[in-house]
Amino acid sequence: MNILTNEFKYTEYKTSEIPEKYTEIIEEAKSQTKNAYAEYSNFRVGAAVLLKNGIIIGGNNQENAAFPSGLCAERTAVFYANSQYPDVPVKTIAIAAFTNGDFLKDPISPCGGCRQVLLETENRFGKDIEFIMYGTEKTYILSNVRSLLPFSFGKENLEK
Ligand code: THU
Fold first, then answer.
1. Of 19, 50, 90, 121, which residue has the fewest beta carbons closer than 10 angstroms?
2. Ligand 1, atom 6, residue with closest C-alpha
3. E strand or H helix at 149, and its extent?
4. 10-149: CATH, from 3.40.350.10, 3.30.1020.10, 3.40.140.10, 3.40.309.10
């Protein structure tokens, strides 16, 4: 029997100390919360996707009276980016959440379904995606998204 560990590193910033190079994408993710259609949860999530060509694509959660028919901000933004720029790798993604009149103090992290989709995008282009989870007090930055989904299912499993 073996007991194994699987660790990953990420950076925790005091939000007031985040390097300036991240300001634009974080501000875009925050701004995207305004267009969320969060009719049922009132939990507004914004995502911003920076492509290798410098274009930033935004997205937000889109809810539905038939709950499973809605979509999270991350998938809305990434699917749109991939649908319009199928050959352009994603460099960085930022997310932010707004509810009860303010952004959340602590970072939110993506749901399982979004992790699977983010991982597919990372693998598809063979390029690590930097992932920023914004909170008003602290913000996490990961250097790739595969660390969010250990023991993932991917293309390679279908090929065996
Ligand atoms: N949501 C996102 O858009 N992204 C996340 O990372 C977590 C949850 C949305 C889904 C739903 O519209 C609302 O937040 C409440 O779960």
1. 19
2. 110
3. none
4. 3.40.140.10
